[in-house]
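Example noted here:
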Amino acid sequence: MKKLTEIIIALILIAVLFFLADPFHFLMPSELQMILLCVMAAAFALYAGLIFREKPADEREAYHLHRAGRLAYITGTLALTVAIIIQDIFHQLDPVLLAVLGIMIVTKLVVLLYAKYKN
């Protein structure tokens, strides 16, 4: 049941992000856009809460969680890097992309240093 709830919340988050991108080129009224932003924030909060509560039952499950987290990090940094390269080629680089990539890298380094110091 816990996994099903996590999947449903993740799908809701993905759907909201999809509609926020306005793929059908409907200029959404600002009220609908604000509602979608609230739904996105709530879905992300629920999803993040589920991720932080997740505890592996054994070594195999811990390994799977580690692999999923590592692949998600690599995929996120790769997607941001590609977006930065594409935007820089067209001379429209959004500094938010640079900030997000920097935050991801710094957070990983800080957590690694903390874990090494703590253990």
User: Anything to note?
Assistant: The chain is about 80% helix and 0% strand. The CA atoms of residues 112 and 118 lie 10 Å apart. Residues 1-54 form one domain.
